[in-house]
Amino acid sequence: NLTIGVLGLQGAVAEHIKQVEALGCNGLIVKRPEQLAFIDGLILPGGESTTMRKLIDRYGFFEPLIEFSNEKKPIFGTCAGMVLVANKLSESKEAHLGLMNVCVKRNAFGRQRDSFEAALEVKGIETPYSAVFIRAPYIESAGEEVEILAQYNGNIVAAKQGNILASAFHPELTADTRFLQLFIEMVKESAKTTAL
Ligand code: GLN
């Protein structure tokens, strides 16, 4: 059985665990870098990216996370997690993990649109997917190797590059598990190849 970890330093952790388990995987709240050895894929949850980055450094997660990604293990960054995986941030000199060739703008939808729900066409999902956005970022620009999965008003809100998946929205806050299912498929594929 697959084990999906959720980085448990800050943010929307419990909701992700619930959904992962509803889809038949084991969920593990990852609070120490050593736990990365026991998971097949990792979710970086929504929350506050600056705070999460501080905690990543404080608990010695930075290098282990890069290594986890170098091993081609799937990582799914949602909302603040999308900010963490970007290799460029439009309003800051320093990026965080730099795992995806995208430039991300934080809090990109402005105050009036602090949080909202929108029906999105998502590549790989047949009928519109209702996505919840909370002080969400979006991808301003993406390299050619990045596969765009969804856009909202012309802005990229979901994308994939190799082992990295990112969404500006919060899939754990809706009953629709189809987006998480896309990640679980990536984890299944990667677990297959590492088992060979
Ligand atoms: N605005 C937050 C950030 O940039 C993300 C918000 C969220 O994860 N819901 O860290």
Automatic annotation (TrEMBL):
Pfam families the record matches: SNO
Single GO MF annotation: pyridoxal 5'-phosphate synthase (glutamine hydrolysing) activity
Signal peptide (from-to): none
Pathway named in the protein's UniProt entry: Cofactor biosynthesis; pyridoxal 5'-phosphate biosynthesis
Keywords recorded for this protein, A-Z: Glutamine amidotransferase, Hydrolase, Lyase, Pyridoxal phosphate
Source organism, top-level taxon: Bacteria
Annotated residues for binding of L-glutamine: G47, E48, S49, R106, I134, R135
Active site (UniProt): C79, H170, E172
Catalytic reactions of this protein: aldehydo-D-ribose 5-phosphate + D-glyceraldehyde 3-phosphate + L-glutamine = pyridoxal 5'-phosphate + L-glutamate + phosphate + 3 H2O + H(+); L-glutamine + H2O = L-glutamate + NH4(+)
EC number: 4.3.3.6, 3.5.1.2
Described purpose of this protein according to its UniProt entry: Catalyzes the hydrolysis of glutamine to glutamate and ammonia as part of the biosynthesis of pyridoxal 5'-phosphate. The resulting ammonia molecule is channeled to the active site of PdxS.
HAMAP family for the chain: PdxT
Family: Belongs to the glutaminase PdxT/SNO family.
Subunit and partners: In the presence of PdxS, forms a dodecamer of heterodimers. Only shows activity in the heterodimer.
Protein name stated in the entry: Pyridoxal 5'-phosphate synthase subunit PdxT
Organism: Ornithinibacillus xuwenensis
Gene transcribed to yield this protein: pdxT
